[in-house]
Amino acid sequence: MTTPAPQFPGAPVVRREAWDKVTGTARYAADHTPDGCLYALTVPATVARGRVTAVRAVDALAVPGVHSVLTHDNAPRLQEPDDPTLAVLQDDRVPHHGWPIALVLAESPEAARTGAGELHVEYERDPHDVTLTDDHPGLYTPEEANGEQPAVRVRGDVEPALAAADVQVDVTYRMRALHNHPMEPHAATAVWADGRLTVHDSSQGSTKVRESLAQALGLEADRITVVSEHVGGGFGSKGTTRPQPVLAAMAARHTGRPVKLVFPRAQLAEVVGHRAPTIQRVRLGAGADGVLTAVSHEVVTQTSTVKEFVEQAAVPARVMYASPHSRTAHRVTALDVPSPSWMRAPGEASGMYALESAMDELAAALGLDPVELRLRNEPGTEPDSGRPFSSRGLAACLRDGAARFGWHDRDPRPATRQEGRWLMGTGVAAATYPVLVSPSTASAHAAHDGTLRVEVNATDIGTGARTVLAQIAADALGVDPQAVRIGIGSTDRPAAPLAGGSSGTASWGWAVHKAAAALAARLAERAGPLPADGITTTADTAQEAGEESPYARHAFGAHFAETAVDAVTGEVRVRRLLGVYAAGRILNARTARSQFTGGMVMGIGMALTEGCDLDPAFGDFTARDLASYHVPVCADTADIQAHWIEEDDRHLNPMGSKGIGEIGIVGTAAAIGNAVRHATGARLRELPLTPDALLPYLL
Length: 699
Prior knowledge:
This protein is an alpha+beta fold. It has 17 helices and 27 strands. It starts with 17 loop residues before the first helix and ends in a 5-residue tail after the last helix.
């Protein structure tokens, strides 16, 4: 009998937790209900700025089943948290609409909801400002943008170079606020027992949550266990600790009973972060041959008065195209708004929409094919740093995508193709995302009975992390992935970084590979049976992952879109969407394609349906649920294809992999916008491209 070959990384292995999820046995944070559990509901502020002068809880406490009400007057005191957004119920200040000002605890969710409705709150209101403009008097240049990126980078002398360019483009693009809206709302269940705290939290990284709780509660970290075993999506909104585990732990300490808190969908927009709106001016100068001579990308965005978060939208322009003169800059103003935060591909998604739309406008001004324009401006080294790329597959992605899409068969003239009432168009955009990696630890164990087990505190947010980590371990051990058991999602396991920045697999996988390889070496040295307690190896990649690479490491991609615009209603439909990616070694073809296409679907929403404003009178978001904030559905995603090129990059990690979770969204919105312009001849420079925005150009 022939022994089947191991399924090494790359094989389309079915995800391990699939059966648990479809049968409902996978347990999420809100699925844990300890005996005696109380249900908590936050009461959000209804003013945009001011302070709470009184909270009258008599009527709320009279509701049957209501146990207690926490406010800033009686809530447990916290130490200064590592994130100011976690300093909840500590004082009477209201920094923005939706800030938690009370917590109602009850024997049932229904009683908590009824009690919250009976709470009477009085405020002292202050004037507020929630409106971002490009000439806002509060604008300033921060020291850094998100990700510790310099806020301003200058190379050469942009202004004279722009003035001297044969062809110039000077355009401004606007994006409204976007919300993450994962399927699973943010939730936490907290239990105190014998001085120890256990929290089940919906988080992208329970190690970080434990650190935040230890800081805020004044506890040693080893007295806290945080479990994030199954997480129903996050898209950045669960990447940092959010208020729900802090509030649940405070309430459980106050009442002496377990407490469960689930944020209602309508509250998420104001308490768990969002993608900040941006106003982006892009100026490009080029010779008649299409070669760029100058690039200027200036970003205006907003943050809150609680903490500074600056969307790093100009950073991708430092990576993408060669030019001797460049200026990329960010300015920000602190408004009375909820704190913005990470949302899938922060910086890249926003910035590449503007840059890739401007490149399309430059191609039109030059009379040059948009694919060819990008190919003519391929840099030999990373423009901003001068470092060589570890690999740069953008040109290959553009060429392969153009061939697969049939790009060169199109009529480049805008507004020339029509099918009945539908105006047809095609567009292209490039994509990039940095290769990020953080130190991680892991363990590998071979039991006396031959069982193999790998443990690492990774978080599976729906990406198939369990499956891919098993494949990585199996590769190092030389066995089938089914022979490897995986333990993740708890701080009782070896510490690991969060799932974010497309860095999860690279970070955890490096440690898993190292631990498994060490175990394989130990096993190879033994001739006899294993000891009764088996053999365990551990790995820590602090040294390897902490070293600065001499290479610029990025994933790249190319997006091609075909859109149909209804000439009567202005409705836009995406007929075809194709992405080709250069993302290192693909570790699981099935889950990788799922991630790529998932990002592309989010890009459709970014382009066509998603966007939210703050009401200037009341200071709250105008779209607070999935009935008013429209995300794409199956009918919006008719023909989506994701492909990749083979990359052998030896300067990454032992797996040769790059992150793939975010690059799928990066260029999608620009490709769709460019296709709509090709279909209609109209260039709209504000997302989303809704029918009401298009109609004036069609009538």
